[in-house]
Design goal:
By secondary structure, the protein is mostly helical. Helix 2 (36-48) packs antiparallel against helix 3 (57-79). The chain has one domain (3-23, 31-368): Vanadium-containing Chloroperoxidase, domain 2 (Orthogonal Bundle). The chain has helices at 3-16, 36-48, 57-79, 97-110, 118-130, 136-155, 219-232, 241-250, 254-268, 273-301, 306-309, 331-337, 358-368.
Length: 385
């Protein structure tokens, strides 16, 4: 996806959330010692996506974005200092921000979580509230959180989140250049429906659609083809161990990867609940809108992946990509001699990278938090294959 698109989405997100900066000095509501916004970003993650109840990347980002916007509106109602995303909520003096954050995140995610995750959410929410002293402050905080969650859920009620959009190949097998799902025509690729989901900060997912893909006759197509063939083959003699590690690093579910590191960023820089809620709202809104726009482009152009482009190279009308390079066999013999289950991940959607846009769409909010991303971005557990 092109840089201009993700930056426009980021700018729109920032504009929609009002002026930048931290909580005003001398706020009437002192910050609690615990960062509830960071805590609940972590708590809701397993309810949105986990190995036993997986959710696609775009779906995960959109649902988490809704939660973060509800949290942001709840926190701003109590702490002040910025414009709300959706609507202003009247907050009685002294309302407990932890109860508001917990309730906003819980109610929003519960509204769209899979049934198997509801018990987990209920347990974590009830346990969290038990740690907050009973009283009017807690009651008011819960009410603010419920109002914020109800507002976001109503705003997104007809956003297309639950729509089913069947993917159909033009033929079987598809024509040269056309994407084919990993499991073949007649099966669903990932996140096809999210190409039509309503963005958070602009009306039409197609308005940032990038230019047409490079034609098969172009020098750029030849360059890209040979680079991918050379470095991506199973027994590549030029791909380094580090480059292979990078592939597996990015194979982790992107929502899990970025949520973990955004939480680490807020905690490592000792951000308060208000600044954390604002940072997360900006970052997730930019990410979801960039993902939606990127998926619109993916499923509009439906460009084939190297997985099919290389073995079908003779069909592209350009003889140059399948010329034998020094020290390499032809692309077709490489693919045909390779095992069907290769050790490198196979992206399950049409070609146009969304992973490469993530650092761009997150960099603006992280700078506005007055800090770069932490260096420790590796997953804590084994990298999935």
């Amino acid at each position: 996806m092109k840089r201009c698109m993700v930056m426009l989405a980021l700018i729109a997100s920032i504009a929609g959330l009002g002026a930048c900066g931290g909580s005003p000095a001398g706020s009437a509501h002192p910050e609690p010692a615990r960062n509830a916004a960071a805590e609940w970003a972590s708590i809701v993650q397993p309810a949105i996506h986990r190995a036993s109840a997986p959710r696609s990347p775009a779906s995960s980002f959109v649902l988490h974005t809704m939660a973060q916007l509800a949290v942001y509106d709840a926190v701003i109602a109590i702490e002040g200092g910025h414009q709300p995303y959706h609507r202003a909520i009247e907050a009685p003096a002294g309302a407990d921000v932890r109860a508001a954050v917990a309730t906003a995140a819980y109610r929003t995610v519960r509204g769209r979580a899979t049934p198997s995750q509801l018990a987990y959410l209920d347990e974590r929410y009830n346990a969290y509230l038990k740690g907050i002293p009973d009283g009017q402050a807690k009651t008011d905080g819960i009410a603010i959180g419920e109002s914020a969650a109800a507002g976001i859920l109503a705003l997104r009620a007809h956003d297309g989140f639950t729509n089913t959009v069947p993917y159909r190949c033009s033929a079987s097998p598809p024509a040269a250049g056309e994407f084919e799902p990993n499991d073949g025509c007649g099966t669903e690729p990932v996140d096809a429906a999210f190409a039509r989901v309503t963005p958070f900060t602009f009306p039409d997912p197609s308005q940032f659609r990038p230019d047409d893909p490079d034609p098969f006759s172009s020098d750029q197509w030849v360059k890209d083809f040979n680079e991918v063939k050379t470095y991506g083959r199973v027994d590549s003699s030029v791909r380094t161990t580090e480059q292979t590690d990078v592939v597996y690093f990015w194979a982790e579910h992107p929502y899990v990867h970025w949520n973990r590191n955004l939480i680490n960023l807020a905690v490592s820089r000792d951000l308060g609940t208000s600044d954390t809620a604002r940072l997360f709202a900006m970052a997730y809104t930019a990410t979801s809108d960039a993902a939606i726009a990127g998926l619109e482009a993916k499923y509009f152009y439906r460009v084939w992946r190297p997985r099919t482009a290389i073995p079908r190279a003779a069909e592209d009308g350009n003889p140059r990509p399948i010329l034998i390079q020094p020290g390499l066999r032809s692309s077709r013999s490489i693919i045909r001699s390779a095992p069907r289950g290769t050790p490198l991940p196979q992206p399950p959607s049409p070609r146009r990278s969304q992973r490469s846009s993530a650092p761009t769409r997150w960099s603006g909010p992280s700078r506005r938090a007055r800090t770069p991303f932490p260096n420790s971005c590796r997953p804590s557990g084994p990298i999935p294959t």
